[in-house]
Amino acid sequence: MALTFRGGIHPPENKNTENCPIMVLKDPIYVRIPMSQHIGAPCIPLVKPGQTVKKGEMIGENKSALSSPVHASVSGKVLRIESAINQNGKRDDYVVIENDFLHTMADDFEAHDEKISDISAEEIIDAVYKAGIVGMGGATFPTHAKIKSGIGKAEKLIINCAECEPYLTANCRLVIERPKEVIYGAKILMKAIGIRTGYLAIEDNKPEAIETLKKILKDDRLISVKVLKTKYPQGDERQLIYAMEKRELPQGKLPADLGFVVFNAETCAAVYNALSKGQPVTDRVVTVDGDCIENPGNLLVPIGTPFSDLINFCGGYSRTPDRLISGGPMMGAAQWDEKAPVIKGTAGVLALSRDTIRREHPDCIHCGKCVSVCPMHLMPCYFAAYSQIGDYESCDAFGIKSCVECGCCTYVCLGNVPIIQHIRIAKGKLQQKK
Amino acid sequence: MDLLRVSSSPHIKHEDSTRVMMTDVIIALLPALIWSVYVFGFRALTVTLLSVVFCVLLEGGYQLLMKKPVTISDMSAAVTGMLLAFCLPATIPMWMVMLGDFFAIILVKQLFGGIGRNIVNPAISARIFLFVSFPSAMSDFSKPFSYASPFAFVLSAEETDAIASATPLSQLKNGVLPSDAGIFDLFVGNVAGCIGEISAALLLVGGLYLMIRRVIAWQIPVAFILTVGAVSYFFPQTSFPLKFMISELSSGCLILGAFFMATDYVTSPVTHLGGVVYGIGIGIIVCVIRIWGSFPEGMSFAIVIMNALVPLIDKFCYKRPFGWNPVNAFQPRRGEIK
């Protein structure tokens, strides 16, 4: 029987690209690489305009705070360093590199040839930091910090291949085409933290991937496959832990406090590539889909490539899009600029039409559907109501801080109320008051 | 390229809306309506149609007059009209139907702020208003299969007298098991009563349809019906407790109230636990009025009384958030719930 959690929704999966092999998009004409692609302090640029850089060369770093370095994803000349508003609405520095199409590789990074058991945890953490690896499911938390926080506390590792958002199939294809990278990467992480039990969590709507993995992991003593019922947001850390062991992560605590550490499948693959090939994070797999894209597909894209390059590679627009989204349709951020760059956390580029959403005449009819689908067991209708009248203290008393903004409530709302928007306003105001 | 819309996530929406839910309610009520036309003649249909059309006109007209967005396409006015008609006898004068519609749509719903803002169920409140204002007209039940004229605006006194009959509930009130109707007749609906309230069987079918379509949850109807069953079994007013219980359960507007009135979204609690408390409360009040009060039917009053208590129920019957310690979760919440 598939494991699951309470609450949640099952939107149309639209996994149109689950049989599309990953295609390589090489050679964008230019890339714009932001200095802040992760949770933590932005990097400080290490290069100057006019300088020639090689692919994989470190171009930004911040040693003084929690951060993760960024690298050039193509070789070429640094045209300029410009300041612009990034996807989160904050001002950021972008290093613009013009591709010279020579594919010159940087060599400041060593590959490790030894067996996993012969590398020390410090070496792994150092390599993971230098490679600029962050959570590539979208959360972008620096992986080296997660490893350090898990040492001594975590006993089980979960490889997150749930991919619960509709449309996205990047993890699915990665696991079908390059499963060994994901599994060995996870084992490297397990060695670094000192864990002997690993689970590969995958939803049951990926039968080909599950079969591939079960074959490879049949006799594996460290990692086993756990099949989860397909439901959104199964990929959330809290719901993963609950599905595995029926234990609730207490409010304010991290998974390590319950003995778990969770890594996205692509993050594991990046760890493997960093240690075995000396490759920093310079590319990632992105699903390009939506009802306005001509030929949806999965692309391996250099970091910093503008979205318009990906869309043109996939045949352009079949109709005029209403929204261009970075990530999945439930939690992704709508973009205003087609030239926004792909960053380490961009799992998908979706072009959606107006047909997918209608929000006229919002009016809460007190139906309680939001209450029944909330995976955090909150009462979103009350957050929306209190937020609209400005009573943010009541929002706090009802537990708005536990809200993960997954969007289940807004998805089902019969009265068309934009609940998440009200919740975000309330959270912002409560944050300002601190 | 055109401008892109930068809106907050989520960017997809389930296709269910108020209109889809309300359409499902209308579909669920149709079997009972067709049966009613068979038993009471086409007047049942004309009264219902008048009620629906007039409710929609009133709501649209009010919204146009007050320069608010016109929301009649969400079908909630149509459902109110249909439910109100179901609470009326087929012999009712047409102008009384229109007056009841006015009370429900304008006074109870729109003047309080429109959909989602009314405190009590509009259809039930209008029924109470008509019952208290025109008690004899509201009790002019016709015998089954005696058809009153469909288009007469007001039925003449001779016509109503000729077809008058007592309802099973009034007989139960007097301590007598319904004599001219066996349990099967009660359940299927070969009895006198209001337009939508005679056939428990067809209303149950409608209720099950709504549960399958996930328009309503099972907590409120089941809590309510079990409570009524338990109280009427343990406090029977006639000789056979089991027969009394089943008669009480299949007569009057109990099934209609359980599946269509008590489950109205706006006036019922938001959580399932709250729904159970609400259902039990309605059940107790219905039985108290039926057994010890002076009316044979207590459904309308019970629902309206519990509607007023819903904010209080919501305040106490909330869920424990994920990851919260039960001690922290059940602290009294600040702020007034509206």
Q: Tell me the strand percentage band of chain B.
A: under 5%
**In CATH terms, what is the fold-level topology of chain B?**
Ammonium transporter fold
Largest interface: A-B, 69 and 45 residues
Q: What's the number of extended β-strand segments of chain B?
A: 0
Helix content of chain B: 55-70%
What is the rounded Rg of chain A?
A: 21 Å
Question: What's the CATH H-level superfamily name of the domain at 116-277 in chain A?
Answer: NADH-ubiquinone oxidoreductase 51kDa subunit
Total individual domains of chain B:
1
Structural class of chain A: alpha/beta
Total of DSSP H or I helical runs spanning 4+ residues of chain A: 13
What quaternary form is this?
heterodimer
Instruction: Give the CATH architecture of chain B.
Output: Orthogonal Bundle
Instruction: Give the biggest sheet of chain B.
Output: none
Q: What are the segments of chain A in which pLDDT stays under 50 over at least 5 consecutive residues? A: none
Task: State the shape of chain B.
Answer: globular
Q: What class, by secondary structure content of chain B?
A: mainly alpha
Task: Tell me what the structure shows.
The complex is a heterodimer of chains A (434) and B (338). By secondary structure, chain A is of the alpha/beta class. Among the domains of chain A are: 116-277, NADH-ubiquinone oxidoreductase 51kDa subunit (Rossmann fold); 369-433, no CATH class. In chain A, 28% of the residues lie in helices and 20% in strands. Chain A contains 13 helices and 17 strands. A six-stranded mixed β-sheet of chain A has the order 1-14-13-17-15-16. Chain A has a four-stranded antiparallel β-sheet with strand order 2-8-7-4, with no helix packed on it. The model of chain A has no long low-confidence stretch (mean pLDDT 90). Chain B has 338 residues and is mainly α. Chain B has one domain: Ammonium transporter fold. Chain B contains 16 helices and no strands. In chain B, helix 4 (94-109) crosses helix 5 (122-133), helix 5 (122-133) packs antiparallel against helix 15 and helix 10 (200-212) runs parallel beside helix 13 (254-261). The termini of chain B are far apart.
